[in-house]
Specification:
With 135 residues, the chain is of the alpha/beta class. Strands 4, 5, 6, 7 and 8 form a 5-stranded mixed beta sheet that branches. The longest helix is centred in the middle third of the chain and has 13 residues.
């Protein structure tokens, strides 16, 4: 069965620093699709973050590139296996130079935290109890 993938393309000021940041979170870089202008970060079998230098990113759009430290252009949300997994990933991000974003969300059945990466892109990490969403 075909599994659709998502490729999240994000502009970065420093491809090498972004590679170090995401590998510190435990995500591998796929060298086959990485260059000096782009890092291919493998989040899962179906999710890939393409971190593009602003010059390379501009090749794909005629729009102005947002300054993600001042403007929210997207919110990326990753699921997590457990509350501990949420905390582990966000804590790794902060230790690697990211910053905490927003307040911890704890609604009992759903738990989440967020961080901004080195370029200000917001990544939410959420754990939701599947039993809570079953009808």
């Amino acid at each position: 069965m075909y599994q659709q993938m998502i490729f999240v393309n994000l502009a970065t000021d420093d491809v090498e620093a972004s590679k170090r940041f995401f590998t510190a979170l435990g995500y591998p870089i796929n060298p086959q699709f990485s260059t000096d202008d782009c890092a291919c970060v493998v989040i899962s079998d179906t999710i890939v973050a393409m971190l593009l230098s602003k010059q390379r990113y501009a090749d794909f759009t005629k729009k102005e590139i947002a300054d993600s430290t001042k403007t929210s252009e997207t919110l990326i949300c990753l699921s997590a296996e457990s509350r501990a997994s949420v905390d582990e990933l966000v804590d790794k991000a902060i230790a690697a130079g990211g910053t905490a974003a927003g307040e911890t969300q704890d609604q009992g059945f759903m738990y989440g935290r967020a961080f901004d990466d080195l370029d200000g892109h917001t990544w939410e990490v959420m754990r939701m109890d599947p039993a809570a969403v079953q009808g």
